[in-house]
Amino acid sequence: MKKKIVSGLLATTMVASLLFGCGGADTTEAPATEAPAATEATDDAAETTEAAEEVVVEDTGKVLNIYCWNEEFKTRVTDHYPGYEEVDATNGKIGDIEVKWNITPNQDNAYQNNLDETLLKQADAAADDKIDMFLVEADYALKYVDSDYTMAIADLGITDADLAEQYQYTKDIVTDGNGVLKGLSWQGCPGVLFYNREAAKEVLGSDDPAEVQKAVADWATFNKTAADMQAKGYSMISSVNDSYRVYSNNVTSKWVVDGKVNIDDNIMAWVDDSKALVDAGATKTHDLWSDDWSKGFFPEGKVFAYFGPAWLVNFSMSADVEGSIGYNGGWGATEGPQGFYWGGTWICAATGTDNAGTIKDIMLKLTCDADIMKGIVEKDDDFVNNKGAMDAMAASDYSSKILGGQNPLAIYSNGVATLDLSNISAYDQGCNEEFQKAMKNYFDGNATKDEAIAAFKKAIVEKYPELTAE
Predict the structure, then answer these.
(1) Cα separation, 384 vs 435, whole angstroms
(2) Which among 200, 149, 204, 196 has a CA at the least distance from the CA of 174?
(3) What is the predicted pLDDT for the residue at 425?
(4) DSSP string covering 170-219, please?
(5) Which residue among 112, 238, 308, 341 has its CA within the 20 to 30 Å range from the CA of 411?
(6) How far apart are CA 58 and CA 156, in angstroms?
(7) Cβ-contact 176, 427 below 8 angstroms
(8) Between 300 and 420, whose confidence is greater?
(9) pLDDT score of 139
(10) Bridge partners of 332?
(11) pLDDT > 90: what percent of the chain?
């Protein structure tokens, strides 16, 4: 049978849910409440339980409103979606549909504040003013996924078979508490260790990825190598914060257990290892993205390694600046001590959209079409969310100039295969940020470990009054 999805008014309870998520400056971190199921109309209600149904979605709108925080997704659509015509910086066309890009930077939470404010008006907005599609990041995806403001991917007519080549972790991040998939991504963000080839040759005797991996194969070996790097005048990593995500992505418990703040053993391993590196002079405590942290992008910064995904080395490490390590092809990539991920961008269809057909097609083309995704790798140096495409590219003559001609795709793929997202929660962003902030005082000698932990728990309970510290 066929069924047509009917976009109904948003539930009143979801207004309260989103308000809870956007009350005050830290709107990214409030956990969403459980959302009721989406409303559907079918030709025959008795047949809605059939195992296989063809879902038909149609466009009735003339304007496709897309909300995002930078130009990345717009660039992907412009360069890779068939039939997209750019009109100007914030407008385009897909056939007869006008595309409007609403781009609000992330700084000071401006993007989410704007998105939240507009979604609250979604039910009563005129058709051409409704949000049709919006993007989310991993750190706050659950806030929107666990709400009625996002459509189920199945309700767009996209099937499990369509998504068979996507990496499971990219689906886990945008699956709600009822097991419903609510978003898709064109990219995977498995992390690796990017190392300074000249430092590797000087200290380790080789810049070959396999040989470097032997020196960073686990944390004990990594920390031993840090002493060797420090003896030659190199910081092992620019900051303790460079390794944080590697540890935090490999926890065995959640930040909150039975309503209590919980610090996993692997998080405490990061604390102890980092304190030892700082005390030995093998790293510093710089904030990520700070000028001091970025000095290692250049030879005179004397930093051996950074942890990150493809987007970090390609777009965030000054590879386009003459004289940088990346500009001269001076980075290499290897797996590092543990697999991890960092970031990613997910496409969500907004409940109430009148252009579900076009949204479905964009999702299928940019996140499922292997040929288009190979094109993204070749043009944008991105790691895409398609196992078949990545396996083919890993075996090809693809190479990265920034990585000295290395093809890193097999290394990325090895990392993504080990990812386990079973311990993510709606509290992750707030807890991760507050924990690193509190531990900086300990690393810098301004607090004891116990004092730093107590300060962290106090900050979290103030941020999330429903939690207890003990």
Answers:
(1) 31
(2) 149
(3) 84
(4) HHHTTB-TTS-B--B-SB--EEEEEEEHHHIIIIIS---HHHHHHTSSSH
(5) 238
(6) 9
(7) no
(8) 300
(9) 84
(10) 195
(11) 80
Place of tokens 């064109």: 186
- Using H for helix, E for strand and C for coil, what is the string for 228-244? HHHHCCCEEECEHHHHH
Going along 294-445, which residue ranges are E strands? 303-308, 331-334, 340-341, 345-349
Is the pLDDT score of 219 beyond 80? Answer: yes
Tokens of 97: 């549909």
Do β-strands 303-308 and 190-196 pair in parallel, antiparallel, or remain unpaired?
A: antiparallel
**Letter string b/e over residues 115-152, b meaning 16 or more CB atoms within 10 A of that residue's CB:** bbebbbebbeeeeeebbbbbbbbbbbbbbbbbbbbbbb
pLDDT at 242 over 90: yes
Rounded Cα distance, 199 and 206, in Å: 9
Sign of CA dihedral 347, 352, 354, 356: positive
With beta carbons less than 8 A apart as the criterion, state whether 313 and 402 touch.
yes
From the CB of residue 100, how many other CB atoms can be counted at a distance below 10 Å? 16
Band of the pLDDT at 259, cuts 50, 70, 90? very high
**Inter-CA distances, 32 with 144, 146, 395, Å:** 7, 6, 42
Tokens of 129: 């003013």
Which uninterrupted H or E stretch holds 111? helix 110-119
Q: Which residues pair with 65 in a beta bridge?
A: 100
Hey, how many other C-beta atoms are within 10 angstroms of the C-beta on 82? 9
* Cβ atoms of 376 and 382 closer than 8 Å: yes
Half-sphere exposure of 181 (CA within 13 A, CB side): 20
Judged against a pLDDT cut of 90, whether residue 4 lies above it is answered with: no
Kindly tell me if the per-residue pLDDT of 396 is higher than 50. yes
CA 317, CA 424: separation in Å to the nearest integer? 28
Return the residue matching tokens 């300074």.
196
199 to 25, 170, 460: CA distances (angstroms): 42, 34, 40
What is the pTM for the complete model shown?
0.82
Beta strands in 60-189 (DSSP E): 63-68, 84-88, 91-94, 97-103, 133-137
* Whole-angstrom distance, CA of residue 294 vs CA of residue 304: 12
Beta strands in 317-464 (DSSP E): 331-334, 340-341, 345-349
> What is the C-alpha to C-alpha distance for residues 76 and 300, in angstroms, rounded to an integer?
35
Task: Please name the residue ranges forming H helices in 255-339.
Answer: 265-279, 291-294, 310-315
β-bridge partners, 308: 192
Residue 51 pLDDT = 41
> How does pLDDT run across 408-460, given as a tens digit for each residue?
999 998 888 778 888 988 899 899 999 999 999 999 999 999 999 999 999 99
Name 242's Cβ contacts closer than 8 Å, sequence gap at least 6.
283, 288, 305, 306, 307
- Per-residue DSSP letter, 31: P
